[in-house]
Amino acid sequence: MLEAVLKNLFLYASKSKMLNKAAKKWGLRFGASQVVAGETIESAIAKVKELNDKGLVCTLDHLGEFVSSREEAIEATQYNIRTLEAIYKAGVNSNLSVKLTQLGLDIDFNFCLDNMRQIVGTAKRYNNFVRIDMEDSAHCQATLDLLRELRKTYDNVGTVIQAYLHRAEQDVKDLKGVSLRLVKGAYKEPPEVAYQDKQQIDENYMNIIKEHLLSGSYTAIATHDHHIIEKVKQFTKEHGISREQFEFQMLYGFRTDMQLQLAREGYTMRVYVPFGNDWFGYFMRRLAERPQNVAFALKGFFRK
């Protein structure tokens, strides 16, 4: 009961514009520095270097979403382009992850598409890959529509499918051949569009993982759930699926021992590395996913 209350509280806070604005002034506090790799491109690249040295590959995410002006979206576009340039110049092993609402999706679809073409085109020149993060269900169809437009020209772009959505299985089938990150889902969604029961979500998660792997498509399994990870290991072994066809992904700052163990076992282990001063919404969603992390956050706060 308490866990459900905390989850709803954190999800509500994640959408508060007032709290997000205040958080930018606070800096990385309340434990956020343990899960956010600094506020600048330079600090993020330094963290990626550290992770690469440990045998881990990365994807960088400049935090921010739901922008309301073209100026903000253009600024975010240029920042993402500079991040790709920094990855290339530093010679680190990292992709880029982006959120479409940060790039103007809520302002105008074609405006956002133009911004994404600039980013994906830059990534193509640097032989890099861009992952479009999936946001709440209200943006799901527009995200997939935009992805399909991009893939008419570029093959170095993919997206994320959330297992708690009823539509997930069909979306995975429709996206055969596209590199997908498969996740359970982290937004508060109504029963009309999403499963509410953990067991149902877990079952659907394994179903879509198997579907995408068996189709021969590149699959990123993004989870901290060791039960799921063991099932994927067994499934890929039984079906003779090459380790070149899939990877595991986890969030920066979470289950680091397991990340290193998977890398030692010879699996591709990619760390999702968020950075920037717009960290509050991301951090609240991480606490909502697992309210036990409140103790983790408070520990970081009292170290300040």
From TrEMBL:
The protein's annotated pathway: Amino-acid degradation; L-proline degradation into L-glutamate; L-glutamate from L-proline: step 1/2
PANTHER family (alphabetical): PROLINE DEHYDROGENASE 1, MITOCHONDRIAL, PROLINE OXIDASE
Binding site for FAD: 134, 162, 184-186, 198, 223-224
Keyword Oxidoreductase among UniProt keywords: yes
A UniProt-annotated Pfam family: Pro_dh
Cofactor details (free text): Binds 1 FAD per subunit.
Taxonomic placement: Bacteria, Bacillati, Bacillota, Bacilli, Bacillales
Keyword list, A-Z: FAD, Flavoprotein, Nucleotide-binding, Oxidoreductase, Proline metabolism
Protein name according to UniProt: proline dehydrogenase
Keyword match Oxidoreductase: yes
Catalysis: reaction(s): L-proline + a quinone = (S)-1-pyrroline-5-carboxylate + a quinol + H(+)
Names of the cofactor(s): FAD
EC number annotated for this UniProt entry: 1.5.5.2
Residues binding substrate, per UniProt: 99, 285-286
Enzyme class name: oxidoreductase
Species in which this protein is naturally found: Anoxybacteroides tepidamans
Record-linked InterPro entries: FAD-linked_oxidoreductase-like, PRODH_bac_arc, Proline_DH_dom, Proline_oxidase
